[in-house]
Amino acid sequence: MIIQSRFNGPPGSGNGGWSAGVFAAALDDRGPVEVTLRRPPPLETPLHQVDGEIRDPDGEVVAQVRPVEPFAAVVPAVDRATAATAAREYPGLVDHPFPGCYVCGPANPDGLRIFPGRLPDGRTAAPFRAPERVVPATVWAALDCPGGWAVIAPGRPYVLGRIAAVVAALPAPGDECVVTGAMVGAEGRKAEVHSSLYGPDGALLGHARATWIALPPA
Hints:
Elements: H1 16-25, E1 33-37, E2 48-50, E3 53-55, E4 61-67, H2 80-87, E5 117-118, E6 124-129, H3 136-142, H4 145-148, E7 158-167, E8 176-187, E9 190-198, E10 204-214
Antiparallel strand pairs: 1-4, 1-7, 2-3, 3-4, 5-6, 6-8, 7-10, 8-9, 9-10
Helix pairs in contact: 1-3
């Protein structure tokens, strides 16, 4: 498996959600599957699954993948108009730690362009138009950043450390969807978040729980 450069997150590495979805496919991409990233996923590098570990050509562990029991981590839906209003206040439009991110980077015209803004209750929400090619990793990616932006703050960047996701169904290309996210707990540098993806008819397409880790001050 290879994380192509167009699916980048922080500079020089793969977007955590997309990469996790690719790694989960080595086990069961519909889930429930949990992926723990042990280091930033390298781009354009052949990776292999060995006994539940994703390894690079030198044998170094990039991620660990394991099945998990079904879990309830659903963030309630909002209508598309509410999500669009929230997205107009997306903090990343002004201050983004990784503006080229495939999922939420405003400087990436070819990305998913999911811009999660805050709702009054602290949840995040964003509209999401499914791309021309949809695979399970697309859902994993869409579930990634909306959870992270429930905790990311100016001068306080976070990166994905672990994510478990369930993909109930894939959106059709061009479907107008909504993604929601919420922080459910925090301890030290770690924040626990949930996220959910809803289709045009309001059906739950996927949900995830994740651990995000604050980067130390530069």
